Task: structure prediction
Amino acid sequence: MSRCTKQIGSTTVAASGAWSANVTLANTGANVLTATDANASGTGTSNAVTYTLQSSTPPSSTGAKAPTLSIANHNLTVAGGGGTVGLGVGVKAPASSTATSVTITGLPQYDRIVDTLDHDTFKGSSVTLTAAEVDSGLTLRSRYNGGGSPSSTLTITATDTMGGVSYVSAAQTIVVKNASASASGALAKAIFPLAPSPAADPAGGVASQGSGQASAGSDLAAALSHDRGAAFGLGHPAPVDGDGRWGANIFASAAHHA
Result:
């Protein structure tokens, strides 16, 4: 067998006259093949058969590369109970891109991501956003209400598909710390407006009932002292429930003086 004038294979004809041969066509485009048989009776050549080979590389993927991610800050802190912080994630797609997306994994169940483009809210351990949503600005909102300050690591990648081939960027990470709200700080904001001023009580404490300085603050102090067995004042944070919430007596006393 030959390609033009180049032999690309040979075989031996069986007694039955059957034969076969495996050949490799190295060039793209048209390949014209013929088979030649030589024996005692002479030489014969078969009719020509044309095989056309096409390139297996998609033309649109030539020179393509993965999108580029940018992270403004790899360590973020957000206040629990509704606090927000900007994620600072950006993505730049190559000129030949067709559909760039960004995937964020590792989002804990108490956190949400909101985009500025259409204000959609994303949750779950793995979320995927369009490049337009990412570039509009992403905000992380914390719904954490527990104790301590847990941290989570978000892993971010960008992907684009061109000519049926996917190109993925190198992964980048952001460590997010969810800071719990201070129980004593929240208590101070609620109690101090009700407590006597330092001028009325130089010691800085809350007056007890029957002292002549009776007020909403003093009544509240007495109620808590009776319930918890310990007085409190400006320098002594009031006791709260174990989960950081106000006790029932606080709500009842505050409501009584509303």
Notes: The two ends are 104 Å apart (CA to CA). Confidence is low (pLDDT under 50) at residues 59-63, 183-188, 190-258.
